[in-house]
Amino acid sequence: MVYDVTRRETFTNLSDIWAKEIDLYSTNQDCIKMLVGNKVDKESERAVTKKEAVDFARQYGCLYTECSAKTRVNVEQCFEELVMKILDTPSLLAEGSSGVKKNIFKQKPQEFDASPSSCCSW
């Protein structure tokens, strides 16, 4: 769940709408939930305190972090933390995939051929 730290209504909607949706539609009781406060690059415009968000995350059993999509602060770490938590939750892993965890963040990104003649190289 992502909210804008500068817009209180996006935070309010978490408990009013989104947390209920997750509980209603999640098919796995071990579903990993993460709360992400976005736009920390606008600290002077903050409308939701970090303490409020941490309290919400504890209440709903969520991981918590703050980031800025604009400046890329903590964005990669958000995904890494979520993936590692999923990989540490046996009920979320398919059988036989335990070896996946070893090098998941050490793999080189796939490189695409950008020549005009290659298919799907946008």
TrEMBL record:
Secretion signal span: none
InterPro entries per the UniProt record, alphabetical: P-loop_NTPase (IPR027417), Rab (IPR050227), Small_GTPase (IPR001806)
Topological type in the membrane: Lipid-anchor
Pfam families according to UniProt: Ras (PF00071)
Subcellular location: Endomembrane system
Entry-linked SMART domains: RAB, RAS, RHO
Molecular-function GO terms, alphabetical: GTP binding; GTPase activity
Coiled coil location: none
GO CC annotation, single: endomembrane system
Matching PROSITE patterns: RAB, RAS
Assigned keywords, A-Z: GTP-binding, Nucleotide-binding
This protein's record includes keyword Endoplasmic reticulum: no
Main location: membrane
Family: Belongs to the small GTPase superfamily. Rab family.
Protein name: Small GTPase superfamily, P-loop containing nucleoside triphosphate hydrolase
Source species: Medicago truncatula (Barrel medic)
